[in-house]
Automatic annotation (TrEMBL):
The keyword Transmembrane applies. SMART domains: WD40 (SM00320). InterPro entries: Beta-prop_WDR75_2nd (IPR057644), Quinoprotein_ADH-like_sf (IPR011047), WD40/YVTN_repeat-like_dom_sf (IPR015943), WD40_repeat_dom_sf (IPR036322), WD40_rpt (IPR001680), WDR75 (IPR053826). This is WD repeat domain 75. Its main location: nucleus. GO terms for cellular component: small-subunit processome. WD repeats lie at residues 55-97, 190-221, 235-276, 428-461. The lineage of its organism: Eukaryota, Metazoa, Chordata, Craniata, Vertebrata. It comes from the Eukaryota.
Amino acid sequence: MVETSDIRVVRCGGSKVNLTPPIISSDSRYPFVLCTSGDLVKVYSTRTEEWLHSLQGHTNQVTGITLNPANHLQVYSCSVDGTVKLWDFIDGILIKTFVIGCPLFAIYVLSVIVLSECFQLVSVHLPKSAEQEVEAKEMSAVSSHISKNPSCTAFGRGGEYIAFARHLQLNVYFFRKQKTYSFSLKATDKKGAKNAFTCIACHPTDDCIATGHEDGKIRLWRNFIHKKEYTYSTQHWHHNAVNTLCFTPEGTHLLSGGIESVLVQWQYGAGNRKEFLPRLGGSILHISASSDGQLFCTSHSDNKITVIESSFKVCGVIQGLVKDAVLTDLMIDPRSKALVLNGKPGHLQFYSLLRDKHLYNLDIVQQEYIYEAGLDQFEVVKAAFDIKGSWLATVEERGKKSSDLEFFLKLWAFDERTQSFVLNTTITAAHTDRIISMCFSSSEETTMLVTAAEDSQFKAWCQGADADTQQDQNFWSCDFVGSYHKLNPTNCSFSADSSLLAVSFQEVITIWSPDTWEMLTTLCQPPGVIRDLCFGRLSCSKYLLGTTTKNLLCCWNLLTCELEWSTSVDVSKLQPDPFSENVAAFSYQSKHTDLFVFKPSEPRPLFTNKNVCSEKVHRAVFVPREEPLNSCDESTQWLNRSQLYFLTQNMDLLTFSTATEEDRMLSSSKQLVIDDSVAVTPFYLLLGKHRQQQQKLNTQSHPVSDKPQQTQGSVTIKELLHTPAHVLPAASVLCSMFVNSFLISNTGVQQDPLRYFVHIRLKSNGFSYSVMHLLSISLKFLNSFI
């Protein structure tokens, strides 16, 4: 058993981006959206919706971000790790770290932070210091009656007072007077509506506080400076709780959102005049506005951020990995190598783990989803790909009780023209009871699907043949129906070469031949119902593995039909690696999950990792690497060909990373890489050929040891190339710096000015406008050499 610290568990792409309200940068020409994502702060472009870079430095969940009032190019972030960090979010540079010393759950302007355990609201003084890491010890308590929901706290009138609500009580604390005024509501009104507070927003210029409530009402509080003379007016549109409120910077409108997924814009001071932007996706959790009021941001329960113009037009969508209700297994699309799992209701989502980007949704149910609690609607519960990625099988169902159960089995064919899956066959009565397992054959020659259901049967489905012509058709039909002593099947699995099919019936495993549909043998299982079932791969293909509800992991030798070995371990997920002989087993015990990686031929684990996470692991998948690792260490060899991803009960997507892999990624990120796949343009043909010819001449005329020393301009150009094109200054600002880089050094060795044009063009297509502008200036400069 090998345990090493070279492999560590890391958060990968797909963390929640809707945990806290997103913020929009102050630059109206090139605005950015910043949002928290696990222990990172991600920066997106509102123009292209692309992820630009991440602010990495926290060691735990980031719980809040806010722009620095003194510098609009900087942002503060707080985390459960007990630190506040100041960033330059344009360049992704950490400027300073303030150590608070206790978990932080929200941060507001004026350095007011919500702290943990009893959720106190305190004011923290951030000292000025030249050091990068500073301890912030000066703290003063504002209130201990604070809600754990950060949306229930807001500042008003430029920081003159702070309003915070908890349950049925609204509190307003005035900093100058150092007094707190409290206002209470009854639990229900005369009509039985619930009055509990759910969110707060303060008007930027007037003494007005807007509060949202569980019954969908919005109250506007005034005259709260005088405790006995306060008044409030009520506005009502939402039929359920108001999740978030936000005033526009000018204070002319109030924005609200809730479970209806409709953004409501109320005109301030005009009664119930309002506008609507419907069908935004999941429930609206947070609303943010840019400092100039030109852009709004809404974050949704389906892990999505929507960018909206002030004219109420959607101009961008930043979609994260949806993980709220994962009913399918984690799958890898053989074609795109994307992670596939449940997405928004009734859909499968395709997500690129390499780029950390949502690719597209595939509508399986093909019905409009109604966001209403308690409605019984269709959900995708099973999905599977064939080995080539040409076919996709899905099962959708609704009805919690067997008497109300309704489900469909669908087969989807990949369309080369649209590069997506198209519905091919819908089977309305595949079984008489719920389908609990299905799998495709592993053979590339023939495609077969096997489904097992609670009606005591398993069925094999193949592409049908016309009765007259005997030619294969596109539709699918049932080829075989199997059962065993009227027992309910629990799982099914094909061998690596599809020559065997294993179907477990309660405590018995049956082995079938798909060619003749003859039951070859049965394997008597020690006490316990079979949960997971899988064959070995490559050199271990003669073994069959199974886990039981009696906490046993067993391995059979299919050549002798005998039990090879067994061990007592509570395996919550058994995941074979299709690219090697390795098998990963997650075991939950003593309030934490352990990982064991082993080969079926040897009961001794190759690798073990204690306390991988504190929750159970029910979903896992091996993802093939684009470039295999060359690790010779026994403890890391199992990660050479593929990488293991797993999903916890808290919907955290985690993976394993080696120290060598992290060092390689860090070094590659610091190097300038020119992509050869960039389109060949006339500009490239003009300068690229000249550069290649010049390089040949330089190689022949100058030995390697006589390379000229780079001028100071080369450093300038290097910084220029490392900066994203869309955040660069205007071309007029760069002209003098760019032309000065062509000057001849004191050593008398002339630099090649044309090579910079090739690098810049290859760096980004978006920079071409600046390059072409500079080209006319530079060509005049080059004429002086002729």
